[in-house]
Amino acid sequence: MSIFGYHASHEQFSPSELRTLATTAAQAGFGAISCSDHFHPWSERQGHSGYSFAWLGAAMQTVDIPFSVVTAPGARYHPAIVAQAIATLSEMFPDRLHVALGSGEALNERITGEKWPAKEDRNQRLFECHDVIQRLLRGELVNHRGMVAVENAKLYTLPASPPPLFGAAVSAPTAEWMGGWAEGLITVSRPIDELREVINAFRRGGGNGKPMHLKVQLSYGSTREQALAGAHDQWRNNIFAGSVLADLWTVEQFDALGKLVDPDELCDMITISEDPDVYVDLLQQ
After folding, report:
1. Is residue 14 within 8 Å of residue 47, measured between CB atoms?
2. Which residue in the list 11, 105, 176, 183 is annotated as catalytic?
3. Hey, which residues does 34 pair with through a beta bridge?
């Protein structure tokens, strides 16, 4: 069964305005709210970067539908702290939180001043973090030494049932790798044929039958010109391949890259229209 959710963009709106937008989305009939956990926005123009876990506590109290968040444990966050945040929210709001774990992007994670690892190292760290978080949410006493270190950690506030831990994948190879251990998949918006490749890879890797969160990025306006201008203003910086975006580490670098993007180049990555039927057709696909 499909549920249509609203993505609350911490990069575009202040936390207080975003809480109002989440309320409006629920009133309009959306069945869930998702958000990402960024330290920086994609551009100076967006201009916001609210702390998602604090916002989730307020928003989930205000809006009584399921929520999800994508976060990257291992650099900016120790996995035990991520587990504690997940457990606290899930205890207060039972069976309403989904969490997706990703390997992170330099834009957000490199603020600690540590060396930015290669993708294979980030994947290994993610796999270890997933195991640590999962064990802590089961109430285990956890000790671990590897890409991350955990010593004598145990959560004393636990939810009645732990939330599912999804994997966040951009590429088909990452999705296939996650199929064997993640409890679900979340991936980014892309053309239907490319999205199908990622879905099939996840299923092939062991994810057949597991739930998926699929992002549909769109820009609506009263005219197509208005919709295109809005997309170009807000999202031209992040339409490039994940292998490029993951290693850029300042907002200024993203803005410099965005200057190379012509508005019409966005049409392959973002559905842009003044006609709601275009979105209905896309969602049916």
Report:
1. no
2. 105
3. 7, 68
Measured N-to-C along each axis, helices 52-62 and 79-92 cross at an angle, to the nearest 10 degrees, of 10
Q: Are 39 and 71 in contact (CB under 8 A)?
A: no
Is 227:214 a contact under the CB 8 Å cutoff? no
pLDDT confidence bin for 217, thresholds 50/70/90:
very high
Is the predicted pLDDT of residue 237 greater than 90, yes or no? no
Ramachandran class of 211: left when φ > 0, alpha when ψ lies in -120 to 50, beta otherwise: beta
Beta strands in the chain (DSSP E): 5-8, 32-36, 67-71, 97-101, 142-145, 149-153, 165-169, 185-187, 212-214, 218-220, 271-273
The domain ranges of the chain are: 5-217, 218-285
| Interacting residues of 152 by C-beta distance below 8 A, sequence separation 6+ | 141, 142, 143
Specify the pLDDT at position 248. Answer: 92
The tens digit of pLDDT for each residue in 128-181 reads 999 999 999 999 999 999 999 999 999 999 999 999 999 999 999 999 999 999
Q: What DSSP character marks residue 276?
A: H
Topology (CATH) of 5-217: TIM Barrel (3.20.20)
Nearest to 102 by CA among 81, 85, 84, 119: 119
DSSP, collapsed to helix, strand or coil, labels residue 98 as strand
d(CA 229, CA 158): 46
At 215, list the tokens: 């992002």
Q: Which whole number is the average pLDDT over 247-264?
A: 92
Are 215 and 187 contacting, i.e. CB atoms less than 8 angstroms apart? yes
Give catalytic status of residue 38 as yes or no.
Answer: yes
The one catalytic residue in 38, 40, 213, 232 is 38
Residue 3 has pLDDT above 80, yes or no: yes
